[in-house]
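*** Fold description ***
***
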Amino acid sequence: MSERIDVDVAGGRLATFGLGASRSEAPPVLAIHGITSSSRTWLAIARNLGDRAGLIAVDLRGRGRSNELPPPFGLDAHVRDMIAVLDHFGLERATVAGHSLGAYVAARLATTHPDRVERLVLVDGGLTIPDSKDVDQEKFIEEFLGATLARLEMTFPDLAAYVDWWKAHPAFADSDIAPEDLEKYAAHDLVGEPPEMRSSVNPQVVRDDGLDLFSAPDAERLALPAMLLCAPKGMVDDPNPMQPLAVVERWAEADPDRRQAVQVPGVNHYTIALGAHGARAVATAIADVVAARSR
């Protein structure tokens, strides 16, 4: 199922998509994607969830089918949009899952509106990014996102060319991402007309959201149940993870009754969500959190 439902927000309408569960009584989970991604991050996870939970997967402001929404951007703007989504679906309190930037949005939502969030699943995001302290913030964002930012300036003659670009990406090459998921992921991000097609992502939103990540992590102040799954490899399948296991374990040890740290072996920052092995692990975590909610 991939039903699109648009939600009124400041400046226009935010695109959301129902992914996964076919039964209407399946517990809903708000799912928030990463900084240059879209709702299609959650395709494999939704498939692995089956009827254990249904995902309300958003296209964040400035991306996907929400790419024409105007500023302001940043974590607080996304939180306001997420509150509008919860209100639209009549969810007084929700389980929220976030990947990468989505984890920071989820944590900000939980700390600023604790009455609206019940439990969190944070996927390779939410805590301080290594080497991001005491640096030139603009330069760090440019270097950290690297190929991601370059992609936003590129044009592609058609969808096949864009899919090929992703296949060659170090994090995607030789991965266990299903070909049909990769094509849907790429197609959802592509806008314009051949032969000048491009990513839907507004470069300004990447800069504004990225600079917000230098603030003190909201995940450090969480006072509700949360699980953080981390990848042992980074954004280009490198040995420099975005959320090192030692950092994640210290975060969990600070509140062991409510926090869990899980490293998913053999995945990178992308494949922890998009790959077959990573998606199974994230789906299991979401299902466990949803089941704990009902106990």
